[in-house]
């Protein structure tokens, strides 16, 4: 693995963040960490070094299937020294960043709804936006909601500070949206602000880099690594056009022993489970929820509405309230749609089994 500073014979799975208490009591197999996912084949790191592994069909498909591995997951596997090893089980995740798999599509065209785990088992979620043309508070709020809900610590990075003169206005806007999360302006080109974030990248810690294409995720990985470990494609600075070259999520170890999960640019972020994240990402809004005169207040025309009063007093911006509504409604729809499809699939299976039983009984009777 590029950037690794240990010799192959001294590497341990513990160096990649594994803890013995992660093992279930009935654990069978060798612990490993997923460094990349290529369909049904995964790149993994284990006590034997780097290798590839495929999913055990009986464990990952059908009823009661294991959680499909994501980059950063810890798994149990059967090691094969002469070919692909076999992944038996996905271990419980400490943290995860998820979105739904129909982000950006009109509701009427959605056929399936499921959780897409972008990365797992990380300590910090770095949300990156460019100070050039990418700065978008609405998008930042969506990332923050999911990042707060991930269980990790969100950090906001405003990149390409060398392209703007004074970024204090953007910094203040990001801090207002971040609700207590740290916000830093940086430039990998000039080194501005890099000293403020170096303390996050300690041995055996894992960070995930999140953001749109072209915000500088891979450039930051290369700067932290002190060498080019990720290919970078330049974008036109006048209009921010151009595509990032990261094509899949991958876990990289730096010489310091810190790990980074670099992700492809996500154009849109479809909300999945926002319940745990909104309480922190929108603490300013949720502070008024439940203070209305009526418990079933819809925050529209009802008298004694705490939300309306806060907006009229200037304590809460209308934009924040509208963002909160949009995010919670979208997450609620995703969950409802997902539950509906699960129930539908169960009903279909029950009908199929009953039809099979009746057909089998009828065949025996006719015989």
Task: Please give a quick description of this structure.
This protein has helices spanning 57-60, 137-149, 168-178, 217-225, 275-281, 283-286, 306-313, 318-366; strands spanning 30-38, 41-46, 49-55, 74-78, 85-90, 96-100, 115-120, 124-130, 153-159, 182-185, 206-211, 250-253, 259-262.
Describe the structure.
This protein is α/β, with parallel strands linked by helices and about 375 residues long. About 30% of the residues lie in helices and about 20% in strands. The protein is built from 8 helices and 13 strands. The strands form 3 sheets. It has a 6-stranded mixed beta sheet with strand order 10-9-8-11-13-12, with helices on both faces. A 5-stranded mixed beta barrel has the order 1-2-3-5-4. Strands 6-7 form a two-stranded antiparallel ribbon. Strand 9, helix 3 and strand 10 form a beta-alpha-beta unit. Helix 2 runs parallel beside helix 3 and helix 2 packs across helix 5. It is globular and about 70 Å long.
């Amino acid at each position: 693995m590029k950037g690794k500073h240990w010799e192959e014979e001294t590497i341990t799975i513990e160096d990649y963040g594994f803890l013995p208490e992660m093992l279930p009591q009935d654990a069978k197999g060798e612990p490993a960490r997923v460094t990349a996912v290529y369909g049904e084949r995964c790149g993994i790191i284990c006590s034997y070094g780097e290798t590839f592994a495929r999913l055990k069909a009986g464990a990952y498909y059908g009823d009661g299937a294991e959680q499909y591995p994501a980059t950063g997951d810890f798994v149990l596997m059967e090691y094969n020294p002469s070919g692909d090893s076999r992944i038996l089980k996905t271990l419980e995740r400490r943290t995860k960043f998820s979105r739904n798999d129909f982000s950006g599509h009109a509701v009427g065209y959605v056929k399936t709804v499921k959780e897409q785990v972008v990365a797992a088992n990380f300590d910090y979620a770095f949300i990156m936006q460019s100070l050039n043309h990418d700065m978008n508070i609405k998008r930042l709020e969506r990332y923050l909601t999911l990042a707060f809900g991930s269980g990790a610590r969100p950090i906001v990075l405003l990149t390409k500070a060398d392209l703007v003169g004074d970024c204090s206005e953007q910094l203040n806007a990001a801090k207002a949206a971040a609700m207590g999360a740290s916000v830093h302006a940086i430039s990998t080109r000039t080194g501005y602000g890099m000293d403020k974030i170096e303390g996050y990248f300690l041995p055996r810690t894992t960070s995930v880099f999140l953001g749109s294409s072209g915000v500088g995720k891979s450039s930051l990985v290369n700067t932290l690594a002190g060498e080019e470990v990720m290919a970078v494609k330049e974008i036109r600075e006048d209009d921010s056009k151009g595509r990032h070259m990261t094509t899949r999520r991958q876990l990289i170890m730096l010489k310091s022993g810190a790990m980074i999960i670099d992700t492809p640019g996500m154009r849109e972020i479809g909300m999945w489970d926002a319940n745990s994240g909104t309480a922190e990402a929108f603490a300013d809004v949720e502070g008024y929820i439940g203070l209305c005169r009526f418990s079933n207040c819809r925050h529209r025309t009802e008298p004694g509405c705490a939300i309306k009063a806060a907006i009229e007093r200037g304590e809460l911006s209308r934009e924040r309230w509208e963002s909160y509504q949009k995010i919670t409604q979208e997450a609620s729809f995703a969950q409802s749609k997902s539950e509906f499809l699960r129930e539908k699939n169960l009903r279909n299976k029950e009908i199929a089994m009953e039809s099979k039983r009746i057909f089998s009984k009828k065949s025996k009777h006719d015989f």
